[in-house]
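Reviewers of the previous submission asked for a worked example of the structure-prediction workflow described in the proposal, so we include one complete record here. The input consisted solely of the amino acid sequence. No template or homolog information was supplied to the procedure at any stage.
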Amino acid sequence: MLNFEHYTPTDIVFGKDTEKQVGELVKKQGCSKVLVHYGSSSAKKSGLLDRVFDSLKEAGVDFVELGGVVPNPRLSKVYEGIELAKKENVDFLLAIGGGSVIDSAKAIAYAIANPDVADVWDFYMGKAVPKACAPVGVILTIAAAGSETSNSSVVTNEEGWLKRSCNNDMARPRFAIMNPELTYTLPAYQTASGSVDIMMHTMERYFQQTKPLDITLGMSEALLRNMIKYLPVALADPTNYEARSEIMWCGSLSHIGLMNLGGTRGDWSCHQLEHELGGMFDVAHGAGLGAVWASWARYVYKDLPERFVTFATRVMGVEPGADDDETALRGIKAFEDFLASVNMPRSLTELGIQPTDEQIKELAWKCSFEGKRKIGGAGVRELGVEDMEAIYRAAY
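From that input alone, the workflow returned the following structure tokens.
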């Protein structure tokens, strides 16, 4: 195992009606003005925004609002938020939504805290490193990316349709309000896609050459089994509080940093491959991950057979085959079968896209940062642009 440092500063406020505490939680931050950032009109229709606004007013907190964040959050909306935040002298971001809204809020927070950097996109392209980040708070309405407790932010630039990330501990939210009831009205596809995203955040860390602590591997396996158990329950009964609670808490645990303690950061090849799919075709993130995972797994499993065997037997519950190869492949197939059982895609065709030969080459070229990087080096196997292209083709 490797040395590690674990940093989790986010105050978790979990349970029914917890969104009513938002005014006092924001007030404790000592801010002067809040930008309330959210996505679609559902936050308004459900009455959640009104409850939030009432709580802020009761606490004497001044605020402005900006909605309209879409899945795979756009840089143009970030720019709009930056302009509004500067005009209104905002010094706190309150994100109401899922990963896309939270990531957009983090990007705005980077910008207003680093006025010497002309373009916040430079942070996402690795051209600059943020020196500060304005504080962010979260009311979570979608259990998926784990951005409510993580250091990660992913934004899509419409110019070139590049989807890039910026990871810095300064962006970890100050608090995260997590009421599972707020996820009751999510469409089934969004619930399943978010749940696959949760699982993939754990699996990216699970599949790595460096052996983490045994307890870390055990927690990862337990989390994955938990998702396999409770996702079908939530899909069959969307208002099942127990199932929604289990999924929501798994979402935070999956991306808070616990699932790789003693190991490397993980593989993340599937995430990098999916980011380009999300940038080019605007697909749901978790669904895109599901569409490429098995093709990636079959491409690399011989480089780490023992971990694919434990995944097969301990997570997917398959019977061991005649040898490690057979067992590993049974586990990969079992995960594909699980995806199908919750109506998630197992290929690009099932995802609803059929990239041309030129588009596949473009996806791989962009994923390699135009031939300047390889992926997966800290995980199972280092992949170059030709490997990326082969996986995209296999996923077709």
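The longest helix spans residues 214-236. We consider this example representative of the routine output the project will generate in years two and three.
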